[in-house]
Amino acid sequence: MPLLQVDAVTAGYGDTEILRAVSLHVEADEVVAIIGPNGAGKSTLMKTIFGLLHPRQGTIAFDGHDITHQAPHRIVRLGMCYVPQVANVFTSLTVEENLEMGAFPMGKVDLSDSKDRVYAMFPKLRQRRRQLAGKMSGGERQMVAMGSALMMNPRLLLLDEPTAALSPKLVAEIFERIAGINDSGVGILMVEQNARQSLGMAHRGYVLANGENRHEGTGRDLLEDPNVGRLYLGG
Ligand SMILES: Nc1ncnc2c1ncn2[C@@H]1O[C@H](COP(=O)(O)OP(=O)(O)OP(=O)(O)O)[C@@H](O)[C@H]1O
User: 176: Cβ–Cβ under 8 A, 6 or more apart, which residues?
Assistant: First the structure.
């Protein structure tokens, strides 16, 4: 059984249907990328998986649990964390306070081991631990956001455009970090605008367009598919 199984999910806002019978899965050790044009429903899909939006039809299962109608605070406890595209750090808190907020659902427990684990993955954050997150660069903030999510020691991390608005050098660094997180045993489901690079590092990928599944395959298959290239990768 896959770690995450999304089956024929239909969801939207108010009367507006955005996702139509979308299905995907993520195995425990995988990096899976979702690409597609603006407005395709990629962020909506992430929000629906994380319980911020409830499907009208279809089912979502995580680690053997039916989470179709679960609330985010329960989903977090099952081992899934979500890093949204915007507003993903507390700008008026320090780096270390952000990490502590990431572990908030655990209650009053000793966080030193969790912090050490996150700082080992992001040594820069240890150096900057007393700095306000709001004073950090875009790439550093993204590391704070991912680090905070990792404080819960999740089995699956949902990342919504982790490389948005970053320079090419930082994009490469964030993808390296994501690969490192995956090597440590965390499954990754990410939405990405940097489609070629994300498919280049992902085990598998999905193309979502107009709220529907269009293509799926290994990262390499999608990169080599002329239809995917022409329509979704800029030729
Ligand atoms: N809170 C909301 N209320 C109503 N409609 C929304 C809401 N959020 C998003 N939408 C609409 O849902 C559609 C899909 O948006 P979504 O953000 O999921 O797409 P996306 O594929 O992530 O796009 P992008 O790549 O531009 O971030 C869009 O038409 C958008 O206007």
Answer: none
Q: What band does 104 get if pLDDT is binned at 50, 70 and 90?
A: confident
**What's the start-to-end Cα distance of the chain, in Å?**
36
Q: Whose CA is nearest to atom 1 of ligand 1?
A: 13
Give the number of the atom of ligand 1 that is nearest the alpha carbon of residue 40: 21
47 CB near ligand 1 (under 6 Å):
no
Pick from 46, 108, 116: nearest CA to 75:
46
Provide the token pair at 175. 């993808």
- For residue 112, pLDDT over 90 is answered with no
Report how far ligand 1's centroid is from the alpha carbon of 55 (Å).
15
> For the segment 196-235, what is each residue's pLDDT rounded down to a tens digit?
999 999 999 999 999 999 999 999 999 999 999 988 887 6
Q: State whether the beta carbon of 115 lies less than 6 angstroms from ligand 1.
A: no
The pLDDT of residue 147 is above 70? yes
Amino acid at 1: M
Which residues are 30's β-sheet partners?
Answer: none
Q: Residue 132 carries which DSSP code?
A: B
